[in-house]
Amino acid sequence: MTLLERLYEAAAPRAAGKRVREVRVGRYLVGVLLDSGEFGAAYALPGERKEPEPVFPDPDRFAGTDALALLAGLKQADLVARSLGMAVCNAVAQPDPARSLEDPDALTTVPVRPDDTVGLIGFIRSIHRRTEGRVARILIFDRSLEGEPGISPEEQQPELLPLCDVVFVTGSAVTNGTLEKVLPWCRNARDIVVIGPSTPLYPEAFRGTGVTVIAGATWPPEHHQQALQEIGAGKAFHDMHALTHRWALRVR
After folding, report:
1. Bridge partner residues of 21 (DSSP)
2. CATH of 98-215, one of 3.40.50.300, 3.40.50.720, 3.55.40.20, 3.40.50.11590
3. One-letter-per-residue 3-state SS of 79-129
4. What fold is seen in the domain 3-94+218-243?
5. Taking residues 57-72, what's their average pLDDT?
6. Would you list the DSSP string of the chain?
7. Of residues 216 and 51, which shows the higher confidence score?
8. Using alpha carbons only, what angle is made at residue 170 by residues 132 and 251, rounded to the nearest 5 degrees?
9. Predicted structure pTM score
10. Range 83-108 burial, b when 16+ CB lie within 10 A, else e
């Protein structure tokens, strides 16, 4: 069973009997509000698609849709369907406060050392900014930025990722299905962290994968309408972090 299939199995009982109230699709994000009052968002994967402007279905068509039907997009090849499925998955996530690490800051939870080689799968700007100059080497892989200075070619991952002591992976790697491909190459890392507000907060789904920490976010009810508006206006996650509650959960 793939990770996306395990996420579907974990989220399905929580989505059962619920319907979609509203969907917003923006340049960077998709957001889904359920009739239960739960809200989730996911990265729209614009850098993964070949079209300059991805064509998304009319969000109004999803009003009243069975939440399980949208969640099932996790098991489809189409990236738009996967993004919408991940938004539903995130909407019904119920992270256990008892399992939450005291500090949701990933770099506090997983500290780096001066002699470390750190891998970034996806250019995670906040992690790069805070590790640059503090570690021996940073290796960055991001297919949407490939060819730019400082970005290592994706084909070098099998050679370079085994050199990493700590690896941070953007949560969008779960949605696009690349996480499971790279995990075997991260076998020498003492910590593998999946990070970002799009990260699905289901520790049970990540058991046995090698991932040690998942760091993501939920959206308090008082911010749901503002989040929908800002997603529709084309805002990205880094513009909306004040609307979220951050979590860091240890997998093992």
Report:
1. none
2. 3.40.50.11590
3. HHHHHHHHHHHHHCCCCCHHHECCCCCHHHHCCCCCCCEEEEECCCHHHHH
4. Enolase-like; domain 1 (3.30.390)
5. 90
6. --HHHHHHHHHHHHHTT-BEEEEEE-SSEEEEEETTS-EEEEE--GGG-SSSS--PPPGGGGTT-BHHHHHGGGGSS-HHHHHHHHHHHHHT----GGGB-S---HHHHS---TT-EEEEES--HHHHHHHTTTSSEEEEE-GGGTTSTTBPPGGGHHHHGGG-SEEEEETHHHHTT-HHHHGGGGTT-SEEEEESTTS---HHHHTTSS--EEEEEE--GGGHHHHHHHHHTT--GGGSGGGSEEEEEE--
7. 216
8. 105
9. 0.91
10. bbbbbbbbbbbebeeeeebeebebbe
Q: What is the pLDDT of residue 225?
A: 96
Residue-level pLDDT at 55? 54
- Written as six digits, the tokens of 129 are 């900014």
pLDDT tens digits, residue range 192-208?
999 998 999 999 999 99
Lowest average pLDDT, out of 93-97, 144-148, 242-246, goes to 144-148
pLDDT tens digit string along 196-239? 989 999 999 999 999 999 999 999 999 999 999 999 999 999 89
Boundaries of every domain in the chain: 3-94+218-243, 98-215
- Choice between 53 and 222, residue whose per-residue pLDDT is larger: 222
